[in-house]
Amino acid sequence: MRFPRFCPQHNHGKFFCSSSVSWMVIFIGFCLLMPSGSLPAAPGHAGLQQADAKACFNCHKDLAAPPVNGSVHLPFASGECTTCHELKEDNTFKIVNTGGVLCYMCHEPKNTKAVVHGPVASGDCTLCHSPHQSPNPKLLLASPVSKLCFACHDEAMAKHKFVHVPVAGGECLSCHDPHESPYAKQLVQEGKNLCLMCHADMEEQLKKKHVHAVIEMVGCTGCHSPHSTDNKHQLLKALPDLCYGCHSDKEEYVKQVKYPHGAVDAKGSCVTCHNPHASDFDKLPKAKENMDICLTCHNRVRKTSHGYVLNMKKWFMDNPEHHGPILTGDCAVCHNPHGSNYWRMLRKAFPSTFYTPFKVEEYSLCFDCHDKELALEKRTSSATGFRNGDKNLHYVHVNDPRKGRRCVVCHNIHATKGPRHIRESAKFGNWEIPIHFENLENGGRCAPGCHFPRAYNRSEDVKNR
Length: 465
What we know:
Strand order of the largest sheet: 23-24-25
Largest sheet: 3 strands, antiparallel
């Protein structure tokens, strides 16, 4: 029973008047005679015939002040509380529908694509959005949006040394749709296309003839974390360990060989020579001619665990007579760029000492291109141009079972100033032996420190002392 709000006799809007005292006495007496507890307590919405924002704010004062530079739900802003809440007969307000169904009364459904965000799938829109108003855009409960995401997701993914710029800025929605997506993890694009939305410079690179297989197979996240890691460029592992994850054969090879290439363990590691994304050339080298790649490092004297390596770039500039592989820019004809069990990372055997007993297999590197007969025949008219008449002078110098001289005693296998790749001097311990080679029309002459001056002629045997 409700207490009357006006005088029942005179209907003048006052609570009571002198002429209505008798009515009041009767009413109070009736209430006192009722059994204890039979008078229901008036609920908070008692007496409301309809709801509007002004009436709601009388109690819900926390909602009365709109946020500064924030966002307000449109029905709430227009005072239409009953769009979402309805007054029941028991004077209570209830949500007109549950969960996402309520939101979908006005908003397009956000749960129709292949991958739906957990709160959206369960209809818990208010886990992320305020239904009334918020100091943040889109009625979000927190700002930046990453703060809201990390209420559920592990924040450790963004706490490593190198952080992806959108993650550092709290811009999770640059890559993820917060509601639904046709792609895994609610990504706004699939695979490499997602990254190319920002990394437009990579789009041109990926048009090259050879694209790194991992990019085609799984996308950029095959090598990079989209959030953060302790490695530069958000690499999943440090180099070369990242590369070895797929190229395990190279890891095994480099660890087993006697002379591994120092570049593999150097700062740039594999990407010193290879483009990790794409190249116009097979095996993704950074340049067509591998010599161009080599000279990015071999442009100064380099110290190795096995001695010093010349400044090869300067050597080639100062010595114009280049060996055949140098002319074609192909250092890898003779050297294995990852490493080798042979001296100087050579692909095949070649003597490393001044004197060496002659065996064909000890010169297998040279005999890949040069005819081995030039060192096997005592007499020849065709196997070599280094002959006195038909006496094979290569045989004389090299083919000695005890103290054969290796090729580089007389020849520089990279480049020289004069013809035939003949050195100006040969190193013998601490002594630089001068060679004094002179090229003649049908032969030549030399006056080295190792023997008296001698000459040779291919057509007529020169008599030397």
